[in-house]
Amino acid sequence: MAEEVVLLDYWASMFGMRVRIALEEKGVKYEYREEDLSNKSPLLLEMNPIHKKIPVLIHNGKPICESIIQVQYIDEVWPDRNPILPSDPYQRAQARFWSDYIDKKTAGPCKALQRETGEKQEAAKIEFMEVLKTLDSELGDKSFFGGNVFGLVDIAFIGFYSWFHTYEEVANFSIVAEFPKLIAWAERCLKRESVAKVLPDSGKVLKSVSDYRKKILGIN
Question: Are 22 and 155 within 8 A, CB to CB?
């Protein structure tokens, strides 16, 4: 019996990008269904009744929610190609810690950067830069967050790279100038076919956010 893998997602979601990259890394064929976040599909509401959010991974009719959980699920179900989590228990725990750090520390400031102005946006900028400083320090001189191997933390964070240009433009600051190591890391990640295939054009992200700020928020 053929496996059925469906992903309910939105093209610009850095969280959905994680799942798509993991599926590409494993060579898993899947059906991608683009969601209209202003008019969520009945399937999305049925498959994720608690949070009602993308991404939702559906494997043989069974839903798995929350992107980091989905990535780990993919690694466990398809273990034969490109392991995402390290085999060593301590290293695996560290990877989970930093992935959780990214989720907890980026959600607030990243949302405010694109939706706020003035003092609130300035506060979000400072907060986000502190997160980047911490991640820059953790990366150090390593090729990837886990060392020489592309893994969970890289997948957890690389989607944000496609949003860096947008954050810089709408909040008037420079990530590229401040964090050359992180930019070099992102460029290494982009050499992987899975990442290059999934990450959207940064200009497309900027246009989408600019349109949202103008039409919905009345912000130029």
Answer: yes
Residue of 92, 86, 78, 85 whose CA lies nearest to 26: 78
The confidence band for 146, taking pLDDT boundaries of 50, 70 and 90, is very high
Residues in the chain: 220
Tokens of 86: 């390290």
What is the C-alpha to C-alpha distance for residues 184 and 140, in angstroms, rounded to an integer? 11
User: Residues 58, 47: contact at Cβ < 8 Å?
Assistant: yes
pTM listed for this prediction: 0.96
Give pLDDT tens digits for 189-212: 999 999 999 999 999 999 999 998
Residue 55, by phi and psi: left (phi above 0), alpha (psi -120 to 50) or beta? beta
Residues 125 and 131: their CA atoms lie apart, in Å, by 10
CA distance 162 to 167: 10
The dihedral over CA atoms of 120, 203, 68, 58, expressed in degrees to the nearest 10, equals 120
Note the pLDDT of residue 195. 98
**Rounded-to-integer distance, Cα 78 and Cα 210, Å:** 39
Pairing of strands 5-9, 31-34: parallel
